[in-house]
Amino acid sequence: MDGVDSGDFVTKTHPWFGARRLPVMAPADTIREMLRTGIRDTGWPYQPLMPAAPIAIPRKSYAELFRVTAALLDLVRRTALEAGATTADRLAAYRMPESEHRLFVADQFVEERYADCVTRPDIVIGEHGPQFLEFNVSGALGGPVETHCRLEVWRALYADEFGRAPFEHRSPFAVRAEMFRHLSEELGVTPRIAVVGSTRDQGVESTRYFDLETEYFNNHGLASRFFEPEDLHEAWDCPPHLRYPLGLRNFTIPDWVELGIGVDPVQEALDNGCLLVGTQTSTFLSSKLTMGLLSEGRPWMTAAERDLVARYLPWTRVLTERKTTWEGRIVDLVPFAVEHKDELVLKEGLGMSGKQVIIGKDATVAEWEAAVGRAAGMGTSVVQRYVEPRGCRLAMVADGVDEPYEAVVAPVLGPLLFGGRPAGLFARFFGDGRGGVVSVMGANSSDNCVVAV
Questions:
Q1: Which of 126, 143, 161, 209 is least enclosed by beta carbons within 10 angstroms?
Q2: Cis omega (within 30 of 0) for bond into 278
């Protein structure tokens, strides 16, 4: 969940967000209590600043994000797969750490086909509209559970006596359930879904984070169960009618390595016919190196695809000692990156929660030069043009404040795409309007969902 590159405080709004805002429908204490109760026992951090209403944007803006996400995801996938003819070739091309050389399924076609089932890019609204800062392609990405919980609160507050709300939205769980039904039909297997993760990832003993989704599936005719890795053998070492041939891989290898959780049970499940999506190939799609390659242009891209990338992706380059282009001229990339500190952001190829991001203008000259030098030597990072985000007005509630108030915030927008279908729109932001790397887990920012009006 690497975040937004922003100034000290957000002061400018953008017409892309539209002029309509939903009214606040309850006292501040009621809204705080409902939001915190909805997300309880999931490991979600305490937020002293919270939204008092959903972020509402025009239907045209809402549709634009999903339309462009689908188009760019296709280009991201093609770019990542062309980096090598085989998995081994791609691991070498991306210089992946040894920890990522695991959890591939034996069938290369299956591995590649189901890599992009679960996607959430990170987008900010810049001067000229949406800018895609990165693509998160992983069953473990944040947003589905959080968006579901926030939507439940807003629906309860805004729905009329017939259950109709004055906005449009997508249900992450409903779309994910439909994705699994489709995958079951395509693979010719019984639609029984294993959700694989660990409460140790969430930092709580409760399994509610996973139970919310499995209970939804079970209540909507799709058999599902949550598995900790130690129990995963029960998904395949059992009578055929009790097996789980499909599942959601709701974890990342780096997280489990850091927590000391072994992945051998997962490999054993994969080897015994339990396909977990997205597959390990999704790591190549998520790598920021892929964004750099795509931004620079691929030989097979059409003129329309190049225009799409130029419009929606900020200038991004894989950082090595070489020449490249910047605004129509040839530059030596490493010296250029050093000299243009305030215009650039440095990002490691693999990273989460903004921990591997350096905003040039927030670093000293010495810090920036050292970081660029190290990154250039390794060849596993990118430099990206800094995007000054524009904001929107949003009603907020704060601890110790009796009444809701209005603030200007710059959200990082995360459209969820499951099996190619829109599945809700997640947002993170600093509730006090300040800037920096936005991450709920890493920087204690606030979150919300976005609806269309």
A1: 161
A2: yes
